[in-house]
Write a structure and sequence with these properties.
Length: about 210
């Protein structure tokens, strides 16, 4: 039988491209006991001189999802490597996953990998503001995918059609909507209001199992 302790204790950072998942994930990563991992960042570190790196970069620059089997395989290998190196301590840390799962099939494939404690759903209805954010980031980080408006639109279509339905795979009680407008500090404050009790409960479980 698979029990929850065999799976990674996880919080999902969820929301459309440009909503600020990466920004908030990087801030949360500074909190001891949280370990942030972004599949987009994982793909961007791949060597584009290799066949697989080039292939993945092509999907990304078109704003398309990387195929599920490949995504999950690379994510499993990467997570395992980080835990072997002790960067990520699965028995202590809560994994803050940003950008995964990205469709219902991935959510199903990850059922026995993840123990999802909470989902932070960052919500922003102001598309113009999100285009601005994505453009700014594309310039700053030299991201080809968000440099073109048509690719940004395509990434949103995929979010609406494939990613948003992922929410229905999880218990409503663990989904917390957070308004993504406003300053990074105020968004962080609202995220922490949801995550402080989640981390406290996790610490409590750990101390009981010692
Ligand atoms: P992000 O940095 O999360 O905006 O992701 C950038 C790009 O990486 C996406 O547009 C996809 O091409 C790819 N990507 C990131 N996460 C996934 C995933 N879970 N499944 C498939 N493709 C992904």
């Amino acid at each position: 039988m698979i029990v929850s302790s065999d799976r990674y204790a996880t919080v999902l950072l969820f929301g459309a491209p440009g909503v600020g998942k990466g920004t908030q994930g990087k801030i949360l990563a500074q909190v001891p006991g949280f370990y942030h991992m972004s599949t987009g960042d994982m793909f961007r570190t791949l060597d584009t001189h290799t066949g697989i790196g080039r292939q993945i970069m092509e999907y990304m620059s078109r704003g398309e999802l990387v195929p599920d089997e490949l995504t999950i395989k690379l994510w499993r290998e990467n997570t395992h490597a980080r835990s072997v190196l002790s960067h990520y301590k699965p028995h202590e840390d809560i994994l803050i996953l940003d950008g995964l799962p990205r469709n219902v099939n991935q959510a199903q494939m990850l059922k026995f990998d993840l123990n999802v404690l909470a989902i932070i759903h960052l919500v922003c209805h102001d598309k113009d503001e999100m285009v601005k954010r994505l453009r700014r980031r594309a310039l700053k980080e030299n991201r080809r995918d968000d440099a073109k408006e048509e690719v940004i639109r395509h990434r949103w279509e995929i979010y609406e059609e494939e990613t948003r339905p992922v929410l229905a795979q999880y218990d409503k009680e663990i989904i917390h909507e957070v308004d993504a407008m406003g300053s990074p500090a105020s968004v962080l404050q609202h995220i922490l209001e949801e995550l402080v009790p989640v981390q406290s409960a996790h610490f409590h479980r750990l101390s009981k199992s010692d």
